[in-house]
Every structure is written in C-alpha cells, then in structure tokens.
Amino acid sequence: xxxxxxxxxxxxxxxxxxxxxxxxxxxxxxxxxxxxxxxxxxxxxxxxxxxxxxxxxxxxxxxxxxxxxxxxxxxxxxxxxxxxxxxxxxxxxxxxxxxxxxxxxxxxxxxxxxxxxxxxxxxxxxxxxxxxxxxxxxxxxxxxxxxxxxxxxxxxxxxxxxxxxxxxxxxxxxxxxxxxxxxxxxxxxxxxxxxxxxxxxxxxxxxxxxxxxxxxxxxxxxxxxxxxxxxxxxxxxxxxxxxxxxxxxxxxxxxxxxxxxxxxxxxxxxxxxxxxxxxxxxxxxxxxxxxxxxxx
Length: 296
Known about the structure:
By secondary structure, the chain is of the alpha+beta class. It has 12 helices and 4 strands, in the order H-H-H-H-H-H-H-H-E-E-E-E-H-H-H-H. It has a domain at 233-296: Tetratricopeptide repeat domain (Serine Threonine Protein Phosphatase 5, Tetratricopeptide repeat, Alpha Horseshoe), CATH 1.25.40.10. 52% of the residues lie in helices and 8% in strands. A 4-stranded antiparallel β-sheet has the order 3-2-1-4. 37% of the residues are buried.
C-alpha cells in the first residue's frame, strides 16, 4: 500500500508546475479585477458588460473571493445552468412575453424553487447564493424547501445577474434603513418608461409599492433614514467588497478589511459607510491621525 501511495506523490518539478499554473490563473483574475476597478461606470441595467470589460456576474464573482480561473469559470457555468433551467420551465413566456412578464417569471421561479430563500444576515456572496439556489450548498438537495439562499444583497445580486442574462434592464435601490433592520437593497426593473421595484426578500415582492415613498438621497430627512439611492452594477459590486471587509473587520484582520473598503470606495466613491468603516479600522490599528480624513 505504501508503495502505491508513493507513486501518487508529486515530484518537485510537478509541484512547481502546479504552483505556476495557479499563479498564472490568479494573475488573470487579478488583471480582470484591475479592469473592474479602473473601468468607467456604465449605464444602469445596460445589457452587456460594465466596469471596463467586466459585467455584474464576473465582477460579483471577483468580489466574492473566487481565487482561480477554474473556479471562476465553474461559477459562470452555474449561472448558465440556472438560466437554462428557467428557460426549460418558462420557454413559452420567454418566446412571447413582455419584459414585465419575463421579469416576474424569473422572480416566481426562484421563489418556487426555494420558498424559504431569504435569510437575514445570510449569504451575500454570489458564489454562495448560486450554490444554495442550485441545491449545491452543504450537500443540500436541489429544490429543498428548508434551505436558505441569502440576504437582501445576495438575493438582489442573483436576481439581477439572471435578469441581465435575459436582456432585462435592471438596477438596484439602496435604503439606509428599511423595516427597522438597517441598510437594505432591492432590484429595480426599467421597462416601458417606468420603474418597478422588486423586493427580493418577499415571495410576493414583485412590483412592491412600499418603498416608492422613500425620498431620494439628498432630499428630506436629515438622518438619511429611509432615503433611496439608485445603484448600478458597480455600486452592487462595491457592496460585496464592503461586506467582505466587514467580515475581516469582525475577525480583527484590519489590513484585509481596509484593502476591501478601498475597493468598495473605488467602485462607489459616495459610499459614506465604507469611508466611516475604513476610518474605524485605521483607529483599531493605532493610526488615528490618518483615520481623521476618512471621517470627514
């Protein structure tokens, strides 16, 4: 048995070749992330790719922490697989339906597949919500009713990625406080000269009307509570980086937190919460003087 196992051991040259292959893959993703961070902002909901040559799905995977090109491509294939399952079920709708009907069809399909999909404080990474929706999270059974999928960011990301794949014009809206639970995100569909709110945390949240009275940012309540800010793909991706940074912050990894806060700020220069949290992280590192500029 020992002899057989010995034959499976990698030689130093083989190990070096594997390391070089992974390094090459990581360089490709690093280059793509650089394109994302340096790219100019595209139009909200525009079909195609934004952030240079990077679209929402790819940008969200990068921000979610995908480390190798193989893993990156595997998750893009999962997006395709999920789209194909929706088409197989709703083929007539996608041949003849309006954008409104297609958007609602996607929404209803996702909730039928996972009736208990929303989880407060749940997954926000696109990788995790894809696995959960497909029933590949923690050995879950596809279509299992009890499995959670994600929080408001995770569900909004997933819906917008799928909607864009079907040529729908979607963005997002951010509320600084909603339902008394703090910051909140939901989808906005642009069709027929109007906007339709899609509240992804409720099974009956398509064409949701309760957020429409929220004033836009810069108008109304001084506290910012309940104010509505329209977001595009770059802002959504920025929120993933911000959420990743918060996880590093919670575990005391200040430098990693600041690295991700910086990426969030690069993509969304008006994201006040990211500036504030970066300043707090700097204070934790004993760099209070440097932190002052981030509190302004």
